[in-house]
Write a structure and sequence with these properties.
Length: 80
């Protein structure tokens, strides 16, 4: 039997060569493809507090009276 490198599963990524593991996508992002080299950021106005998300549907709209102007989308801030 032959051995080969295995692509990272959805929900994880690896940006470097020669690694033995993949990392879960960080909060504020999602990894929706096999073999991802980075996570995709949640759109402005949404957030995602969880790691390892596999779809943009994990990005939640900020509640009324709050906003999230940044692109990492890991938390949201109360409105002023």
């Amino acid at each position: 039997s032959s051995q080969a490198c295995i692509k990272c599963p959805v929900g994880s990524y690896n940006p470097l060569t020669g690694q033995s593991t993949c990392s879960k996508c960080f909060p504020g992002s999602y990894c929706d493809t096999i073999g991802a080299t980075s996570g995709k950021s949640c759109p402005a106005g949404t957030y995602n507090p969880n790691e390892g998300s596999v779809s943009s549907q994990a990005c939640i709209k900020c509640p009324v009276g709050t906003h999230y102007p940044f692109t990492d989308g890991s938390v949201y801030f109360p409105g002023w």
